[in-house]
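Worked problem 6 (solution included).
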Amino acid sequence: LVTPANGKFSIDLPLDKMVTAIARFDGKTAQFVLDGARVTVDFSTEETPVYAQGKGATDALTAFQKWNADYRQRYPKSSTDEERKAMMDEYRDKMKEVAAANENVVGLMAVKSVRPLLEPAEMREFVATLSPVIQEEESIVDMLKVIAAQEATAVGKMFTDFEIPQTDGSVVKLSDFVGKGKYILADFWASWCGPCRR
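Solution. The predicted structure is:
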């Protein structure tokens, strides 16, 4: 919390281009990137939302936010299936473009925004084209693990065999039952779950 002097203030923040910060004043907010570049926020404007001005990543963030605001304004006006598909294609292409152009939180935001629009294999291939900075971000690494699990368990894929120790000391494998010409229902439950036990 800082108190402006003559309507202005200056503050030094830790650097992390993969993080955004929010400045709040008089009920208004502005978001910016902690990449070390000087940022200016004019809270006296009537503009809503307030956009931060600066260099580098903050300018990219502001452009990203403005594009998204414009897109949200235009999307409801698309009424036919063709128009909606064209709008979704435009959104997907823009997010891919932004992700490829920004090795910072803006690129990260774009990757996460495009995720629901791509099939798992397509998403994995897309992330492989991005900078190592984005690829190695923890949330992207976790997302790729989820994608790998989705691909491994997709319809038509061979099941992953597993073993379960029995109370008599023997071990039963899923492969002991699957592939014998009958449907198999595997019901997973927890011993601590009352409804499961019932």
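Discussion: Helices lie at 57-74, 81-101, 105-114, 120-128, 132-135, 138-152, 194-197.
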